Amino acid sequence: MKRPVAVALVHHPVVDRRGDVVSTAVTNLDLHDIARTARTYGVARFYVVTPVVEQQVLVKRILSHWLDGHGASYNAHRGAALSLIRIVASLDEALADWRAEAGPDALPVLTGAARADGISFAECAAVIEKNPLLLVFGTGWGLAPELFQRGWTVLEPIRGRGGYNHLPVRAAAAIMLDRLLVRPA
């Protein structure tokens, strides 16, 4: 039986195209699409990770519209998906909250299109049989190197048919959740 899964969308620390560590802006599309995907695949929680207070306020405003405002009566399905979102200032805060919810054995698993290392989708699916999981996605050009230096598990990247490998994070989240939670890996 698969254990609970949460996802985290990290806006800091991430890298830009030059490799500099930056904070990226929250996008409405990422919130809606990843929340809808998470709800579809039975994900228990979706953490939006940003230390930028103005970005946190923006997310709260979007959530308020869909959970309490006009959007709540206009499209209840959207509110059901967005209700999975928790806003946190750091990945450590997300992991602590998820462990408080799912248990102390919850494991973070990092993702990255540029990574050459990592466990396979089949191996990761087997991990979910034993441990709750926090699947961590980066915005911009991916998670900052400092996160990979923590010794956490890394999931293999999605490979397409050619050499181009720069999926939008919401597409990568959908593909990975499908491979891990539904399809045989």
From TrEMBL:
Residue intervals of the tRNA (guanine-N(1)-)-methyltransferase C-terminal domain: 5-181
Pfam families: Methyltrn_RNA_4
Protein's name according to its UniProt entry: tRNA (guanine-N(1)-)-methyltransferase C-terminal domain-containing protein
Residue spans crossing the bilayer: none
